[in-house]
């Protein structure tokens, strides 16, 4: 391969690759993400700037699918241009959230972060993998979901949506309950695990147990080379942009919810008549509980 298939996703793929890179390659990745103009430098200049060897620079762009540095530079320039275009319709804010930001500044930065997380995820989401995941959920006798922390909320959202269209779906908040449930799954079941890093031990164990039990496994994560992805039959990757407030799960949560919405909608559309009838029935039940104003 001499060029990546989609130049527009190059920055997304660089960000996603960071956790799996060697320290020297990670410095290179972080340099290009922080300052894409660094691609104007020669291989030797990049190596000097990142305090590494030219071999590490070559290994870095080859890991991303490029045989030649010039092709990497061209695609990086295209990716930067596309990102600048996406940012042009957003408020002009820059930098991470800091202690001196006003509430207006915080709103602008959060909005930009989440908007770009959704846009990047939509651009990079593997349609073939999404189709495979939809097919698995569509034919499943039972669907179990699990996540830890903010990812647990995403798993719950999936369970609630699937239940509304008549699918047998369970969500587990406690890891031990999730593991024991995973051990009872079989080939007619699907386990869905959610983790931004893909390295949360409890979540990886849930998917591993489910796979050993014979269930099909689906991972929703930001990192394709993560342990969670390794335990999944199908991996749906987000492209979240986290800030220093990572513990608040800002961009990651909204990107995961976007993937869940796509997954749910795909299942509902594939079983359109049945799903629409279920949605009407469930809406009617909830709507009847709304207090009517005089």
Folded structure, characterized:
With about 290 residues, this protein is an alpha/beta fold. Helices cover about 55% and strands about 10% of the residues. α10 links the parallel β3 (about 190-195) and β4. The relative contact order is 0.12. Mean pLDDT is about 85; it is low at about 1-5 and about 245-250.
Topology:
Elements (H helix, E strand, L loop, with lengths): L9 H8 L5 H12 L8 H7 L4 H10 L5 H19 L15 H22 L2 H13 L2 E6 L2 H15 L4 E4 L2 H8 L6 E6 L6 H12 L3 E6 L5 H4 L3 E4 L13 H20 L1 H16 L7
Parallel strand pairs: 1-2, 1-3, 3-4, 4-5
Q: From the helix content, strand content and strand pairing, which structural class follows?
A: alpha/beta
Low-confidence stretches: 1-5, 243-248
Give the SSE string.
HHHHHHHEHEHEHEHEHH
Compute the number of strand runs.
Answer: 5
The residue fraction in helices comes out at 55-70%
Across the major sheet, the strand order is 2-1-3-4-5
Rg, rounded, reads 21 Å
Instruction: Specify the biggest β-sheet.
Output: 5 strands, parallel
> What's the overall geometry?
globular
- Tally of alpha and pi helices: 13
Mean of pLDDT:
87
State which percent range the strand residues make up: 5-15%
Roughly how many Å apart are the termini?
Answer: 68 Å
């Amino acid at each position: 391969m001499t060029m990546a298939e989609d130049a527009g996703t190059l920055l997304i793929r660089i960000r996603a690759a960071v956790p799996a890179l060697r320290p020297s390659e990670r410095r290179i990745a972080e340099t290009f993400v922080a300052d894409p103009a660094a691609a104007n430098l020669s291989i030797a200049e990049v190596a000097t700037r990142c305090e590494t060897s030219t071999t590490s620079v070559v290994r870095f762009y080859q890991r991303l699918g490029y045989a030649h540095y010039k092709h990497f530079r061209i695609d990086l320039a295209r990716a930067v241009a596309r990102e600048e275009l996406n940012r042009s319709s957003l408020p002009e804010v820059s930098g991470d959230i800091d202690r001196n930001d006003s509430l207006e500044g915080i709103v602008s930065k959060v909005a930009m972060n989440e908007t770009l997380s959704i846009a990047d995820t939509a651009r990079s989401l593997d349609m073939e993998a999404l189709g495979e995941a939809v097919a698995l959920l569509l034919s499943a006798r039972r669907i179990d979901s699990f996540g830890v922390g903010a990812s647990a909320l995403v798993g719950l959202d999936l369970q609630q949506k699937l239940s509304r269209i008549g699918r047998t779906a369970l969500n587990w908040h406690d890891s031990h309950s999730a593991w024991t449930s995973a051990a009872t799954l079989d080939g007619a079941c699907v386990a869905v695990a959610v983790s931004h890093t893909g390295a949360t031990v409890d979540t990886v164990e849930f998917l591993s147990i489910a796979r050993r039990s014979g269930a099909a496994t689906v991972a929703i994560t930001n990192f394709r080379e993560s342990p969670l992805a390794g335990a999944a039959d199908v991996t749906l990757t987000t492209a979240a942009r986290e800030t220093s407030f990572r513990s608040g799960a800002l961009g990651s949560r909204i990107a995961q919810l976007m993937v869940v919405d796509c997954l749910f909608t795909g299942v509902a559309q594939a079983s359109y008549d049945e799903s629409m009838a279920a949605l009407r029935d469930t809406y009617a039940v909830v709507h009847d509980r709304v207090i009517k104003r005089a």
